Amino acid sequence: MELKFTKMHGAGNDFIVFNAIEQDLSALTADDWRALGNRQFGIGADQILLVEKPTIAGMDFKYTIYNNDGSLVENCGNGARCFVKYVYDQGLTQHLANTREVAVQIATGTMVLKLNDDGSVTVNMGAPGFVAADLPAVVDGLPTRAQAEDTLYEVQLTHGERRDISLVSMGNPHAVQIVTDVDAAPVLTEGAELEVHPMFPRRVNVGFMQVMNPHHIKVRIFERGAGETLACGTGACAAVVAGIRRGVLTSPVRVSARGGELSIAWAGTGEPVLMSGPAVTVFDGQITI
User: Which controlled-vocabulary keywords does the entry list (predicted)?
Assistant: First the structure.
């Protein structure tokens, strides 16, 4: 089986994108996604994105995402920006009334993606959620404290230290903590531990946020199923939302990740999160499976 693909990235968060409308990928398995995502023996990527026909009326495309460990993921904001640039560049939006704006179906709902004139992409990520059971997260018996509009959950790590985390759903689960120096934060060790903490039965994305000022943060994200990535769109959104709810940030917020910068705006509870940032095509290729 020979498949055409495009390698892309959004602020360093990199993807393999497949046109699954014109190519049949139904025979591929989790082992195949792992092999494709392997940086030593495959193409290499944080996630693999599929452009598919929608199954919900009114949607232009279906957007399916695999982590590089072969697992399905509910949402990926950086990937969404690459998604809309891909379908536009490939001519897949020519039948639409507005070729630069598409509505996509994801595992947990829908999103609207817009390609801007300057080449950046704005994604309506939908309204965030804060109900622990919906992430899901098991919080019974955990110490909590209120900070402004947020509820912080105190989680004990294996070495005995405790961390206050905010819980945010961006269609996928996030646990966000504030640190004094994000570059020195134990992202690889604590991120890996919190990802599989018993309170998260389906694992979690772990965010580490340093507040530079009310309109600027630095972040590092340990992504569920992928490890630390150079950027994470939903992680950036979750961090900004958590910071606004804690009363330490004011919208809009510039988010500096290791791979680049994003702009996040959020008007408050019940309102959608708007994320803008780059989407870059690296190369097109073909691979035999």
Answer: Amino-acid biosynthesis, Cytoplasm, Isomerase, Lysine biosynthesis
250 annotated as belonging to a binding site for a ligand? no
The domain 132-271 is placed in CATH, from the list 3.90.1640.10, 3.40.50.620, 3.10.310.10, 3.10.310.30, at 3.10.310.10
DSSP E strands: which ranges in 85-240? 101-106, 109-115, 121-124, 144-147, 150-156, 162-169, 173-178, 205-213, 216-223, 227-229
27-45: string of b/e by CB count within 10 Å (b at 16+)? ebeeebbbbbbeeeebbeb
Q: Is 76 known to be catalytic?
A: yes
Q: Is 237 a catalytic residue?
A: no
Map out the domains of the chain as residue ranges. Answer: 2-126+278-288, 132-271
Whole-model pTM: value is 0.89
Rg of the chain over all Cα atoms, to the nearest angstrom = 18
Kindly report the length of the chain: 289
Among residues 37, 39, 35, 32, the alpha carbon closest in space to that of 47 is found at: 37
Does 47 appear as a known binding residue? yes
Same fold, 2-126+278-288 and 132-271: yes
176 φψ region: left (φ > 0), alpha (ψ -120 to 50), beta (else): beta
- For residue range 44-77, what is the model confidence (pLDDT) as tens digits? 999 999 999 999 999 999 999 999 999 999 999 9
CATH for the stretch 2-126+278-288: 3.10.310.10
- Classify 88 as helix, strand or coil: helix
